[in-house]
Amino acid sequence: MMLNNVFTPVTLLTLLFLSTTAHASQLTGCAAKKQEINTQISYAKKYGNTQRLEGLEKALQEISENCTDESLKAERMEKIAEKEKKVTERKQDLIEAKESGNLKKIDKKERKLREAMNELQEAKNRLSL
């Protein structure tokens, strides 16, 4: 019986998170950002995290005053360009490592390239949000 009492709050929080995420995924642009912050505000209030709450409320105010879908898209496109530049740099680093023949260096540069490519993909995925 004690086990059920432990899992019930966890299960409820998980379901709440999933339903909020599903609802937020229907929203895009600034509306999605507002919804995400409102969800975090609810959690901060629930758990009495006043510092987090203040920061989130300030962020929500900033979004309400300054966010447009066009500016958000431009910001995300800029992030994509930065990530593409990073991928290009990492590719060049890998080429140089391969020329050196140092296997440890090659492994490290391959890992860095994969990380940069993952970051680029994440930035591209955010574009559609």
Automatic annotation (TrEMBL):
<keyword id="KW-0175">Coiled coil</keyword>
<dbReference type="Pfam" id="PF06476">
    <property type="entry name" value="DUF1090"/>
</dbReference>
<feature type="signal peptide">
    <location>
        <begin position="1"/>
        <end position="24"/>
    </location>
</feature>
<feature type="coiled-coil region">
    <location>
        <begin position="53"/>
        <end position="126"/>
    </location>
</feature>
<keyword id="KW-0732">Signal</keyword>
<dbReference type="InterPro" id="IPR009468">
    <property type="entry name" value="DUF1090"/>
</dbReference>
<protein>
    <submittedName>
        <fullName>DUF1090 domain-containing protein</fullName>
    </submittedName>
</protein>
